């Protein structure tokens, strides 16, 4: 009931926002190809997403809908995996600070026990000056058999090197798993995790470059500022990413390569490698 209310509210707010002329707003489309190696469950998959980011005055409304299909090994699984997710955020800025709320939902998963799980986030950001910004967000994820508490602290530092704009980011993720009833997803997971991510973004003329590395293990994490939720029983211990992009007028095209190493927790299958190639398209209006 609560999930339905939040979805209807988010869509209503979005429809009202679109009636006005937004500033620095954009449409987002992305496609992703996944390849799994050494997995006992998955072979490869495709992900498709569409989103909108609307700015009006001091407010920002963002909504993303994502669908994915993964080819599985049969047996042990009986069907291919099909997943639908919804991400939303509202942010309000005042002075040097901003408050934001997040909502994430696993709308449909035909195989996992995390089907129907919802996550909520509340955060505050503060600009110390034009270069340094901090953001703290507290997430709570409610699954049928377990809950996840996640605290994120992010620091962004902007600088310029001649004609190149640089942004350095440090993210810290503290994750605590609270098992409500025994289940295969959490029985081999740690009670808590701590992960640090280092990111670099460079912008020169119409070109963009990005790189990221994650250190430390994580499971059932919320990533990408609340626009990615890892709801399957996989414990990641390596993540590296590279990205390139170019602006064409109001449009931006980006390509990302992401490498991850994980353990499939239910069967303690280590050494699973996941290679992702993402193509993203933004149009500013």
Question: Topology of this structure?
Answer:
Elements lengths: L1 H17 L7 E12 L4 E15 L2 E14 L8 E14 L2 E13 L8 E10 L4 E11 L3 E16 L2 E16 L12 E13 L2 E9 L2 E2 L2 E2 L4 E2 L4 E15 L2 E14 L4 E16 L1
Antiparallel strand pairs: 1-2, 1-17, 2-3, 3-4, 4-5, 5-6, 6-7, 7-8, 8-9, 9-10, 10-11, 11-15, 12-15, 13-14, 15-16, 16-17
Explain the overall architecture.
This protein has 285 residues and is mainly beta. The chain is 6% helix and 68% strand. It is built from 1 helix and 17 strands. The protein has one helix at residues 2-18, and strands at 26-37, 42-56, 59-72, 81-94, 97-109, 118-127, 132-142, 146-161, 164-179, 192-204, 207-215, 218-219, 222-223, 228-229, 234-248, 251-264, 269-284. Strands 1-2-3-4-5-6-7-8-9-10-11-15-16-17 form a 14-stranded antiparallel barrel. It has a two-stranded antiparallel ribbon with strand order 13-14. A hairpin with a 2-residue loop joins strand 2 and strand 3. The protein is globular. Mean pLDDT is 92; it is low at 4-23.
């Amino acid at each position: 009931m609560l999930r339905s209310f939040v979805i209807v509210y988010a869509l209503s707010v979005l429809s009202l926002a679109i009636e006005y002329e937004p500033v620095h707003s954009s449409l987002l489309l992305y496609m992703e190809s996944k390849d799994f190696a050494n997995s006992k469950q998955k072979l490869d998959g495709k992900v498709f997403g569409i989103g909108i980011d609307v700015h009006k005055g001091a407010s920002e409304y963002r909504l993303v809908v994502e669908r994915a299909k993964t080819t599985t090994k049969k047996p042990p699984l009986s069907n291919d995996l099909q997943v639908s997710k919804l991400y939303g955020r509202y942010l309000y800025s005042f002075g040097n600070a901003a408050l934001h709320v997040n909502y994430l939902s696993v709308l449909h998963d035909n195989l996992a026990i995390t089907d129907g799980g919802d996550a909520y986030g509340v955060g505050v950001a503060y600009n110390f000056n034009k270069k340094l910004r901090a953001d703290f967000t507290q997430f709570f994820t409610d699954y049928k058999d377990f809950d996840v508490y996640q605290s994120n602290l992010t620091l962004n530092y902007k600088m310029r090197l001649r004609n190149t704009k640089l942004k350095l980011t440090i993210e810290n993720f503290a994750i605590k798993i609270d098992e409500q009833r025994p289940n295969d997803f959490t029985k081999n997971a740690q009670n808590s995790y701590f992960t640090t991510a280092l990111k670099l973004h460079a912008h020169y003329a119409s070109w963009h470059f990005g790189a990221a590395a994650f250190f430390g293990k994580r499971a059932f994490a919320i990533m990408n500022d609340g626009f990615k939720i890892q709801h399957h029983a996989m414990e990641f211990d390596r993540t590296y990413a590279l990205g390139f992009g170019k602006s064409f007028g109001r449009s931006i095209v980006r390509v990302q390569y992401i490498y991850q190493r994980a353990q499939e927790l239910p069967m303690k299958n280590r050494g699973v490698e996941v290679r992702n190639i993402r193509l993203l398209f933004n149009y500013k209006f």
